[in-house]
Write a sequence for this structure.
């Protein structure tokens, strides 16, 4: 999906070429078909090729994916997810990101 969003539209070959460690070409085509069945992609035909386009705005898809991650790995707890990033073993969050998180928390408290 990242490749399709970045390009605006993409063929299976485009997606395959854009993946850092791609599975087989047929696996990419199968995944695109599944994403189309789920309604997050649609296609148009360009000769013998299918060109895939997103059907859901990127920000809406991002929120939906984040909700699934929260449910799957953090029992739905946003606080647990934030704690996993703040307490990461690989070091600290950059100061600008910490400030942004603090500002968002303050804004949420005011609401």
């Amino acid at each position: 999906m990242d490749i399709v969003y970045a390009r605006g539209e993409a063929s299976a070959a485009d997606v395959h070429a854009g993946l850092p460690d791609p599975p087989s070409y047929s696996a990419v085509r199968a995944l695109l078909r599944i994403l189309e069945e789920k309604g997050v992609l649609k296609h148009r035909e360009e000769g013998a090729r299918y060109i895939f386009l997103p059907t859901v705005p990127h920000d809406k898809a991002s929120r939906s994916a984040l909700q699934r991650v929260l449910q799957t790995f953090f029992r739905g707890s946003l606080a647990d997810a934030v704690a996993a990033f703040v307490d990461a073993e690989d070091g600290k969050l950059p100061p600008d990101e910490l400030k942004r998180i603090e500002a968002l928390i303050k804004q949420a408290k005011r609401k």
Notes: The first strand starts at residue 10 and ends at 11.
